[in-house]
Amino acid sequence: MTATAAMLAVLGEFGDGVDFILHAREARSGGTEVGGSTLLPMLVKHLELTGASVGIAVALAVPIALWLGHVGRGELLAVSVSNIGRAVPSLALVAFFVAYIGVGFENVTLALVLLAIPPILTNTYVGVRQVDRDVVDAARGMGMTGAQIVRRIELPLALPLVFGGIRTSVVNVIATATIAPLAGVVTLGDPIIAGGVYGQDGRIGASILVALLAVAAEVVFASLQRAVTPRGIRSTSRVRSLRRRFSPA
Amino acid sequence: MRRITLVLLALVATLALAACGSDDDGGSTGAATAPAETTQAASNQIQSNPGNAKTTVTIGSKNFTEQKVLGEIYAQALEAAGYTVKTELNLGDENVALKALKDGQIDGYPEYTGTALLSFFEVPTDQLPKDEQQAYQEVKADFAKDGIAALPPTPFTSSNEVGLTRERAEELGVTKISDLKGKEDDLKLYGTPECRQRMDCLLGLEKIYGLKLRDNFTPVDPALRHEVLEKGQADLSIVYTTDPQIERDDEVLLEDDKGMFPPYNSTFLVKQSFLDQAGPDMAKTIELVNQGLTAQAMQELNARVDLDKKTPAEVAKEYLQESGYIA
Q1: What is the pTM of this model?
Q2: Which helix (H) or strand (E) holds B191?
Q3: Among partner residues B124, B193, B199, which is closest to A181 by beta-carbon distance?
């Protein structure tokens, strides 16, 4: 115990932040406890919000992008959506929603859905378009219907990129859900925003937690992405996805 | 129709301000520290002292309307007293402003007694003094240890309040916070994220007034505190005493009958060494222009900036002229 305390002391402000995560203490403004286990409901809310937003975004964006990719149209739409998504800061988006729709779990979810859609939509579209045309022609020649081609050829071959998109969205949403306490949802952003109550330790502690959450999501979805990659394209897909990641599109 | 009421309101407020000014004519002799001067000056007008021109004063303020207006008032008043004045009126939060003062980037700025006690001297919210003078004396004593002088505060306090629309207040038949007892079940309360865990906010409403509002509380961006009332999303909202929307939107503040909200009067902070070197006119001028700054006057000045879109400099000049401090 004293060893941990000493180690945390050496780490300075960072150590104070970690200590805040581990142990509850009197709030800086007095009268209540903060930190430690009191962070748990916020963590749960944070995950609920992230799950709901990304879930809805996947349900909306994947079918649309699959269809657009399958019929080979809507390139302009896919590219525009992705570019707009990148240009509009999520904070402004949430502020906009709060001003015009109001506050609460549903509204924040809606704003985060809009934030989560572009990477999923674009990646899915590109994933379907990059399927080798010869493979699609062969499938058609074998007598597969359009729906069968989407389900059995294009979707499996696009899955690595689809999951790449979801992974980007999840990390974005986890980071952005920190502004939810300004719109009625108490997430892990609360200690970051309400500095007068939690103090600097709380601010750093919550930031560490959110960063850890984002890294964990990144790791989980990276392995999912690997797992869903069809064996046939596994060796080349890594090269391809790397190339894609470093190319400026 | 609405415009006419606004114009009328502005007129009434102007008259009220003028009235405040003339009231001070009679009362200032008691408050002023230098009797020789007051007998000479028949009015409240600031006398220019050419000897002050060699002193350059840099006035700072934090980054919101009320602070900028206060900063401009002090800057223009000191200029009228003959000082050479510079301004630095957008310094971020209280920590930035205090650091700028200590580093000598600015020579003085207005700070609220409650903020100073909470933020700088880390007094927990449940231990803040409820009395305005006591709060000021504590702040003054604490700052004196750092070589900073806290000048006598403004009459207005800019603290948290429980606000609601007049319509809703009449419906509920409430005038005091304790009147809410037993009615709180279907009342939605909105406040800042911090409010949730502060004794001078939701926590105090629960612990001091015994109101069961926790499940009815929604945290929002402080900028939305009046909008949620206007749109009917909230029944009660935590607002600030000097918010201009209170008068313009016909809102009611519930009386804090158990003294839960600590005082937030504005005191001017200046380094003691600078104050000594600047001469007696500096403190005297600031104390003089503070006299007219009642909650109502401050509300009106904030309204002219936030709602009528005038600049803080214009509004400060109007205040000084309407109160007769400058010609």
Answers
A1: 0.74
A2: strand B189-191
A3: B193
